[in-house]
Amino acid sequence: MVDIFISYAKEDLGRVRPLATALAEHGWSIWWDRNIPAGKTWREVIEEVLESARSVIVLWSKSSVKSRWVQEEAERGFERKRLIPVFIDDIILPLGFRSIQAVDLSNWTPEQSSPGFEKLIVDISAICPPSGDVEEVGRIGEKEPVGKKELDDIRRGVGFFKEFVDQDQPPINKRRKYLNAMRAIHEAATITNSYLNDIREGKEANQKKEQSLSMLWFEATAAIQPINLDLADKCLIKGQCWSDPRLFNSKEYESVSLSIDYMFSETRRILHEMPKE
Asked: Exposed end of the chain (fewer CB within 10 Å): N or C?
């Protein structure tokens, strides 16, 4: 299983490689090379990877908006709730995709950071934290994919969160990071607490709601990681555990503070530590 499937038009091949390399440096495994392993058809491989990829990036360009294959891959990524649209040209999206917010990388270059690329990192992290499995970046190997333990993925993924608050940036920018983190954690904790209260009152567990809680905690992970890596680790664990509640009973987390009360107290601490205007 790869972390990121990149859909693009063949005319944009030269523009895909720098992006794939940049994303791999953040710890994600990428599939973008259309080379086909022996014994398989092109269509079989595309469908296999598209169905199993943890996220689907579609590069919208002047060429790809005309591609039926790219549109089909985008539709499947949307159906699986794994779609991350990216502009690499100033174009109008095909019908059906115009209401989905896209990341603008039309002026991005790998030599310099940009708000668009930073947003892309956050958006991908919310769907699939980095696995660190980058050995097969670029193509599907001829061998069968090696199974990875989800609990190891959690710890390894957190290790790739390296963006910290720049001490020289204006206080208003730092305040914004703190506010975003506080809001994200508070929202995830509040909705989680409400759901748990419903369960205590006898309501049945709801898998769809638990998946929604998982996404909220992954979003909180992305918001808090520039400020506090340890707390980002805890949010990431909660996101993974809500995606599979059986992980809550893991012995690895017996000594890890993951309670809702703890998360609420952390929002207060973030508020107190927030830089002054």
From this structure: C
Same-domain check for residues 49 and 116: yes
Q: Which long-range contacts (CB under 8 A, 24 or more apart) does 145-152 make?
A: 145/1, 148/1, 150/240, 150/244, 150/247, 151/240, 151/247, 151/250, 151/252
The string of pLDDT tens digits covering residues 8-66 is 988 888 888 889 888 888 888 888 865 555 555 667 778 888 899 999 999 999 999 99
The packing angle between helices 260-273 and 229-243, to 10°, is 150
> Is there a single domain that holds both residue 123 and residue 188?
no
243, 214 in Cβ contact below 8 A? yes
Tally of domains in the chain: 2
Q: How far apart are alpha carbons 26 and 49 in whole angstroms? A: 20
Has this prediction a pTM greater than 0.85? no
Residues 176 and 231 occupy one common structural domain: yes
Residue 157 lies in a domain: no
- Structural domain of 39: 4-148
